[in-house]
């Protein structure tokens, strides 16, 4: 995290800071009182964050080095210290690596598809009739407004094996028998469905942000390129995309963070009991802790998850600093 | 309107008529595919049971009925969920606004040592997957006897909303020209008066937008409340999840329940959508 601020990379003032500090006149009483004001204002926020975020984070790390089970939970006994056992257990378990691979694979595929779809829709919105654009906007707004849980339940119903409308429609295709087809028996089909759900729900944010970004592309540039004989594909690659790049980076990073933490969609589609091949890091950690009362093992998995995401998070924050949003 | 038409002309330079027809068709198709699941929720909720449970789906209800809605409302724990949800959400949002506004003021209006560190913390915290913290939070709240209580969940939600609240309000406060503060102070206003008479009224719309967004976040949450509390102490979202697992195939009432549960947030969302669209990526789009 310090890498973002990178105070260490700045050249140190010659002779150290002490002399300079001595030169500054002592602040008056009034000034010193002023210096306390911002900290007093920030204090309640800091207290909440320490009590409900930093401390739980610390507890989670401690817990991951212990062995907390149902017995400790019920009796209130201090769980025994087991060192790196939980981590060793996870890192030598092929099930765990399967979960990691699945989560990473899903994240890569779903983010690529979402961003491409979002970009495509954003570009499409520039070409269509204003009325069509309005229809697209309205459709996307409703999808965006839908709570995650409701969106997932809707897909559960659309793909219901007996009365789902999706099977009915696919069954209409010549030579295809999809009556009573169950979408979740074959994990590839099930995951395709999860991906479609995530991409569908993700498009509004991506397309609307990117289309806002597209309005920043100077029309003169595109015109000039057209006059100079550039094809629309060349104009897209050499003008539009470079200008859009900072925004694309941000929305892609956010999508990675969100999709990596996939929980609601598989949870709802699998009725609260995701089969092993529908487990991702978030659901796996949760079910280990609350399904099997392995609170420490669940914590170790959560710690590993956060560590895996740290790189992406640092990247995001750097980007925010770079574009000058943070001053 | 004239400007818009001109824009269209510029953009269609060198583009074929066929391409435009193609694009418009694609746009309409896209809108239809996107909205279809939303339509299907509505369609299902309005159909009587035999039309829902039909191997040949009814694309329009033949005998529209509101039975599903009354059946959803009469389901166990609906009223509790509604009240609990409102209490938890309003408590969390109100607390987040008060606490967050002060911090936002500090970041936006004061230059002080440690300011950048606070900004960094706020940004990082927004990215921490909160689900990862649910195990220690559960154990902590259990020890403090705050599981199965509305206060416990509200506290967690306060933490959930706070970083975003600080960050957005910071933006709104920073948007008020500092010269206004200075002019008022030269005219003899104290810092407190500047706050009450200038900053607070001018941040009003921002406060409303932030509150509404916070409401949506807290209202939509169900995993934490489902983990910490028993069904009678949960919110409407968790109630909806409970309904799915308990009454697996009753899709009509379930979809009606989904509409009732999401109606407030959908309305709120549509009201403040402009803010949400730019909130997450503000700065990346300079305009």
UniProtKB/TrEMBL annotation, chain A:
Membrane topology: Multi-pass membrane protein
Localisation: Cell membrane
GO biological process per UniProt: transmembrane transport
Keywords noted in UniProt: Cell membrane, Membrane, Transmembrane, Transmembrane helix, Transport
Recorded superkingdom: Bacteria
Gene3D superfamilies with a match to the protein in the record: MetI-like
Pfam families on file: BPD_transp_1 (PF00528)
Boundaries of every ABC transmembrane type-1 domain copy: 100-318
Annotated stretches, region: Disordered: 1-29
Family: Belongs to the binding-protein-dependent transport system permease family.
The protein's name: Sugar ABC transporter permease
Protein species of origin: Actinoplanes siamensis
UniProtKB/TrEMBL annotation, chain B:
Residue intervals passing through the bilayer: 21-42, 82-105, 117-139, 151-173, 194-216, 250-272
Location(s), subcellular: Cell membrane
PROSITE patterns assigned to the protein according to its UniProt record, in alphabetical order: ABC_TM1
Pfam families tied to this protein: BPD_transp_1
Gene3D superfamilies: MetI-like
BP GO terms, sorted: transmembrane transport
Coiled coil residues, start to end: none
Topology term for the membrane: Multi-pass membrane protein
GO cellular component: plasma membrane
Assigned keywords, A-Z: Cell membrane, Membrane, Transmembrane, Transmembrane helix, Transport
Domain ABC transmembrane type-1: 82-272
Protein family: Belongs to the binding-protein-dependent transport system permease family.
PANTHER family (alphabetical): INNER MEMBRANE ABC TRANSPORTER PERMEASE PROTEIN YCJP, MALTOSE TRANSPORT SYSTEM PERMEASE-RELATED
Name of the protein described by the UniProt record: Sugar ABC transporter permease
